Amino acid sequence: MDKQLLNRVIERKRKLLSTFTLEQIGITGFIGGFVGLVVGEFYGAISGKLIWHVANVFLYASIGMILGYFNSKSKKEDLQVELMILENFQKSQ
What we know:
It is a single chain. This protein is mostly helical. It has helices at residues 3-47, 50-92. Helix 1 packs antiparallel against helix 2. The N and C termini lie close together (9 Å).
Protein backbone atom coordinates (compact mmCIF):
# COMPACT_ATOMS: atom_id res chain seq x y z
CA MET A 1 0.00 0.00 0.00
CA ASP A 2 1.27 3.46 -0.88
CA LYS A 3 2.51 5.38 2.17
CA GLN A 4 0.81 8.62 1.16
CA LEU A 5 -2.49 6.84 0.68
CA LEU A 6 -2.09 5.10 4.02
CA ASN A 7 -1.34 8.44 5.72
CA ARG A 8 -4.47 9.98 4.17
CA VAL A 9 -6.62 7.07 5.31
CA ILE A 10 -5.24 7.33 8.85
CA GLU A 11 -5.86 11.10 8.95
CA ARG A 12 -9.44 10.67 7.73
CA LYS A 13 -10.08 8.01 10.38
CA ARG A 14 -8.71 10.34 13.07
CA LYS A 15 -10.93 13.22 11.92
CA LEU A 16 -13.96 10.93 11.75
CA LEU A 17 -13.20 9.57 15.20
CA SER A 18 -12.98 13.04 16.74
CA THR A 19 -16.47 14.11 15.59
CA PHE A 20 -18.27 10.77 15.27
CA THR A 21 -20.28 10.89 18.51
CA LEU A 22 -21.45 14.44 17.93
CA GLU A 23 -22.52 13.62 14.37
CA GLN A 24 -24.47 10.57 15.49
CA ILE A 25 -26.20 12.52 18.27
CA GLY A 26 -27.14 15.25 15.80
CA ILE A 27 -28.51 12.86 13.19
CA THR A 28 -30.59 10.81 15.59
CA GLY A 29 -31.76 13.94 17.41
CA PHE A 30 -32.97 15.38 14.11
CA ILE A 31 -34.78 12.15 13.21
CA GLY A 32 -36.29 11.97 16.69
CA GLY A 33 -37.40 15.59 16.43
CA PHE A 34 -39.07 14.86 13.12
CA VAL A 35 -40.90 11.90 14.62
CA GLY A 36 -41.92 14.14 17.52
CA LEU A 37 -43.19 16.69 15.02
CA VAL A 38 -45.41 14.10 13.35
CA VAL A 39 -46.65 12.71 16.67
CA GLY A 40 -47.15 16.24 17.97
CA GLU A 41 -49.33 17.03 14.96
CA PHE A 42 -51.48 14.06 15.86
CA TYR A 43 -51.80 15.09 19.51
CA GLY A 44 -52.28 18.71 18.55
CA ALA A 45 -55.17 17.82 16.26
CA ILE A 46 -56.85 15.82 19.01
CA SER A 47 -56.31 18.17 21.96
CA GLY A 48 -55.92 21.48 20.13
CA LYS A 49 -53.06 22.56 22.41
CA LEU A 50 -49.70 23.71 21.08
CA ILE A 51 -47.88 22.63 24.22
CA TRP A 52 -48.37 18.94 23.35
CA HIS A 53 -46.88 19.58 19.96
CA VAL A 54 -43.77 21.29 21.35
CA ALA A 55 -43.38 18.76 24.17
CA ASN A 56 -43.43 15.83 21.75
CA VAL A 57 -40.75 17.39 19.55
CA PHE A 58 -38.43 17.89 22.54
CA LEU A 59 -39.22 14.49 24.01
CA TYR A 60 -38.55 12.52 20.84
CA ALA A 61 -35.49 14.59 19.95
CA SER A 62 -34.05 13.93 23.42
CA ILE A 63 -34.74 10.21 23.13
CA GLY A 64 -33.13 10.20 19.69
CA MET A 65 -30.04 11.97 20.99
CA ILE A 66 -29.66 9.50 23.86
CA LEU A 67 -30.03 6.55 21.49
CA GLY A 68 -27.51 8.13 19.12
CA TYR A 69 -25.00 8.53 21.91
CA PHE A 70 -25.18 4.91 23.01
CA ASN A 71 -25.24 3.65 19.43
CA SER A 72 -22.16 5.71 18.58
CA LYS A 73 -20.14 4.27 21.46
CA SER A 74 -19.92 0.81 19.91
CA LYS A 75 -19.23 2.16 16.44
CA LYS A 76 -16.58 4.49 17.81
CA GLU A 77 -14.79 1.54 19.42
CA ASP A 78 -14.80 -0.20 16.03
CA LEU A 79 -13.26 2.89 14.43
CA GLN A 80 -10.59 3.01 17.14
CA VAL A 81 -9.67 -0.61 16.43
CA GLU A 82 -9.47 0.09 12.69
CA LEU A 83 -7.25 3.09 13.35
CA MET A 84 -4.92 1.07 15.61
CA ILE A 85 -4.63 -1.66 12.97
CA LEU A 86 -3.76 0.89 10.28
CA GLU A 87 -1.21 2.63 12.52
CA ASN A 88 0.45 -0.70 13.38
CA PHE A 89 0.51 -1.59 9.69
CA GLN A 90 2.14 1.76 8.95
CA LYS A 91 4.80 1.21 11.63
CA SER A 92 5.64 -2.23 10.32
CA GLN A 93 6.38 -0.94 6.83
